[in-house]
């Protein structure tokens, strides 16, 4: 049970740090923007982040996943960190949180 709590807490910590990363073209953090599809944490405190970009030709296609990996790996409890980039499903505005839509005047 304690192990489940630890992985859940680490997952929450990873999400919290991901919310400090902003898309350079849109003034919303990448989590609320819907670029983070999932955060997996195993019992060894290894983290895998499944993410996308707003488009395959995004100008930060190389730097943003690296920033995500570095920020997540900077957490004390993280053992290993892997970032997997996917475009399936493709990002769309429907993936944005209500908070992001409000911030961008879409609501």
TrEMBL record:
Residue intervals of the MIP18 family-like domain: 12-84
InterPro entries: Fe-S_Maturation_MIP18, FSCA_dom_sf, MIP18-like
Gene3D superfamilies for this protein: Fe-S cluster assembly (FSCA)
PANTHER family: FE-S PROTEIN MATURATION AUXILIARY FACTOR YITW (PTHR42831)
Protein known as: FeS assembly SUF system protein SufT
């Amino acid at each position: 049970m304690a192990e489940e709590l630890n992985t859940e807490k680490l997952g929450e910590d990873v999400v919290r740090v991901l919310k400090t990363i902003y898309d350079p073209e849109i003034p919303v953090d990448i989590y609320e923007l819907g670029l983070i599809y999932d955060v997996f944490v195993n019992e060894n405190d290894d983290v895998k982040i499944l993410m996308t970009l707003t488009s395959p030709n995004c100008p930060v296609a190389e730097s943003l996943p690296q920033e995500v990996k570095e920020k997540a790996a900077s957490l004390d409890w993280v053992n290993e960190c892997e970032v997997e980039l996917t475009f399936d499903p493709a990002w769309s505005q429907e993936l944005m949180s209500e908070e992001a839509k409000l911030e961008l005047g879409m609501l």
